[in-house]
Design goal:
Order of helices and strands: EEEHEEEHEHEEEHHHHEHHEH
Largest sheet: 5 strands, mixed
Distance between the termini: 19 Å
Shape: globular
Strand content: 15-25%
Bound molecules: zinc ion
Number of helices: 10
Low-confidence stretches: none
Structural class: alpha/beta
Strand order of the largest sheet: 3-2-1-4-7
């Protein structure tokens, strides 16, 4: 049997995505289930079941995109603030024994950057920084068409010295201001501060999409929350432009749905902060792969 496919896994804080991907980066089959971050060791069993469902003799290897800091050498997950259940777990060991093929592991945002570079918006650029704007904020860096082999915890650069607590243990991280969880937390604070906002009468738990919807419908307090997140995102982007002088910043993740408020504010803020020559040569564009960048990057890692 020709080994013409690999399995790419994206272990997100919210969803677990598993796909059968061709060598060219084409997603052939795909499954998605909630990752249940509070379900303890079940994350590993859910993952094994999803891989098993797509696994066949065609599969050359398995690539795992994991949120947090990973040790690619040992296959261990060092720290994963959004899925504590997999910290210290050696998924490479577990799955290579179970499926009998090579298993490789990388940071999810780095592998999303690799995926964009192989089959997405990154194909047009030699150097780019990818930012994933989801539950948290992640990032990956491609320089001269090669994935930068470094932690690249871009969501954990400090943007406010005495700022909000972050899940990583530090305070003032970009993620604590510009991630989806941060936007919801800030919206709740606005509601409990007694400010005039229709978010007060919202039924059920507020989501970032709700906050965006209220903002679009003219709620100034909701718009303020997203604009504030955009300013911090722009401060982060300006730093990445100054450090890496990339051809592009590629943005992906659920929050890019608020492009006209969040990202446009971030672009304005970045233009005020970055070196003008570096800002002008850098394009700020959306991902071309949406939710598939991580699994395509993980699959590419498995083939390498
Ligand atoms: Zn942090």
């Amino acid at each position: 049997m020709v080994k013409d496919c690999s399995i790419g896994v994206d272990l997100g804080g919210t969803n677990l995505r598993v796909a059968l991907v061709s060598r060219a980066g084409e997603v052939l089959e795909r499954t998605e289930t909630p990752s249940c971050p509070d379900a303890g060791g079940d994350v590993v069993e859910n993952l094994a079941a999803a891989i098993g469902w797509l696994f066949s003799d065609r599969v050359a290897g398995i690539g795992l995109a994991v949120p947090g800091l990973v040790d690619a050498q040992s296959g261990g997950i060092v720290t994963s603030p959004n899925i504590r259940a997999v910290e210290g777990v050696n998924l490479v060991d577990i799955f290579s024994r179970r499926f009998g093929v090579p298993v490789s592991l990388g940071n999810d945002a780095s592998l999303a950057a690799l995926g964009e570079s192989v089959a997405g918006a990154g194909r047009d650029f030699n150097s780019f920084v990818l930012l994933t704007l989801g539950t948290g904020v992640g990032g990956g860096v491609v320089i001269d068409r090669k994935l930068l082999q470094a932690a690249t915890e871009l969501g954990h650069i400090t943007v406010e010295a005495a700022g909000r607590r972050c899940l990583c243990g530090n305070s003032g991280c970009l993620e604590a201001y510009a991630g989806a969880a941060a936007i919801v937390a800030q919206a709740r604070e606005v509601v409990s501060s007694g400010a005039s906002t229709r978010m007060k009468n919202h039924d059920g738990n507020l989501t970032p999409e709700d906050v965006y919807r209220y903002a679009v419908d003219g709620d100034a307090a909701a718009a303020g929350v997203i604009i504030t997140a955009g300013k911090y995102l722009g401060a982060g982007i300006a730093s990445f432009i100054n450090v890496f002088s990339p051809d592009a910043i590629i943005l992906t993740g659920g929050l890019t749905g608020a492009w006209d408020i969040l990202v446009e504010e971030a672009v304005r803020e970045a233009s005020r902060r970055a070196f003008p020559q570096l800002f002008q040569r850098c394009k700020i564009v959306p991902s071309a792969l949406a939710g598939n960048a991580g699994i395509i990057g993980a699959s590419a890692l498995a083939f390498s």
